[in-house]
Amino acid sequence: MCQLLGMNANTPTDVMFSFTGLATRADEHKDGFGIAFFEGRGLRHFVDHHSARVSPLAELVKRYPIKSDNVIAHIRKATQGRVALENTHPFQRELWGRYWVFAHNGNLVDFHPQLHAAFKPVGDTDSERAFCWLMQELAKAHCAVPTIEELSRTLAELTPRLNRHGTFNMLLSNGEALWAHGSTKLHYLLRRHPFGQAQLADEDLSIDFAQHTTHQDRVAVIATEPLTSNEDWVAFQPGELKVFVGGALFAA
Amino acid sequence: MCQLLGMNANTPTDVMFSFTGLATRADEHKDGFGIAFFEGRGLRHFVDHHSARVSPLAELVKRYPIKSDNVIAHIRKATQGRVALENTHPFQRELWGRYWVFAHNGNLVDFHPQLHAAFKPVGDTDSERAFCWLMQELAKAHCAVPTIEELSRTLAELTPRLNRHGTFNMLLSNGEALWAHGSTKLHYLLRRHPFGQAQLADEDLSIDFAQHTTHQDRVAVIATEPLTSNEDWVAFQPGELKVFVGGALFAA
């Protein structure tokens, strides 16, 4: 199973701690990794078809404190599509003058939608097909740039149509909000004042967030499995879509 | 003036030597840098709004031998648009199931085309507007995926319309071919057997390509100014569009 990691914050935050936790799980997920960081409207997008365990790129991400308000990372274990750079999540497209980033964990069976519009897959995964279809349907549903609320309503209609084809745990962001859909396995955590000590579940590493944060900071972390052993992770219900804005849950 | 660097080869080749040459010129071009590497249909895309002189990303590119058949790099000195990640070249879009990458050196005055189709700028540079317009016009001109020859013919019609608005030195690639348009300053070099010693123009560094190549290898390098002091660089004529495929000039 692939591993997903998402981060949404109200102040630019680095994900070195969480990404280190994710990368330790890369032993059995050696078919590539990717991570995308929004900085305002701008985007940094790193992909490598080497394991996050050995990739020099992953090493850079663990050491270079890139501060971002929306991050999506993915560690791949190939189910559909060859091990190749063009099949490595997260995927990226532009819509309405904003970059959109998407990562998927799961397997969609018999999913071959009509892609008649401006979004075509470059690789050959079910995941990129699902992303292109989502972008196409969002573009069809709204003629101008919609609000986060409107986008969330449309996505709540679209995600069950994907879920019907199989497992569809996914993360999607346009740099303003982060949408997360749980199908079989996805968890989230809201960090806010008072911040405490967090202990990585898989590695003998902990961090005291109180030393790195202010009272106003809010950070949401979304991951396939809880990354820390001493914090209150919440499991997504099957078919649940959640929207994160400014490090908190957005009530759509 | 920004600095452009392009590479097109018939066998995956690293650009560590040329990029080191380019990065030395980053002193007066401190408004960001970017580099995109095609690996087949896949793409690695690095951007940083820090100077290539100090960026940890640039350091990685100089040391990690990423082998690619088409590379576009850009070192920015801002003319239009703020210093921000979303204004950092090269820009990337998807068209016909292929990634397209674009970098521009120059300044387009009063260029505000109708962007009515699927390509909208995320940042606020004249360069990204020009790229979106090119993608839109390519998409309008061809209903299915055109050949390199057909694409070249369409681009030869479109580039003069951009050049009319000011300086338009540019590099464009879809991973199959690299198109280069010279307006005021652009040079290219064809390396092939017998390979020899190359000496960087700005730094006390040389490389013996004979030790790193086979008889069949062909590499085209395109740069704003010649990067080496002892090779036969050819200057683009004003308004000249050249197409590079497999490390050689493509006769369109």
Automatic annotation (TrEMBL), chains A, B:
The keyword Transferase applies. Residues 2-247 form the Glutamine amidotransferase type-2 domain. Transmembrane segments: none annotated. Keywords: Glutamine amidotransferase, Transferase. InterPro entries: EgtC-like, GATase_2_dom, Ntn_hydrolases_N. GO terms for molecular function: transferase activity. Pfam families: GATase_4. The keyword Iron-sulfur does not apply. This is Glutamine amidotransferase. It comes from Roseateles asaccharophilus.
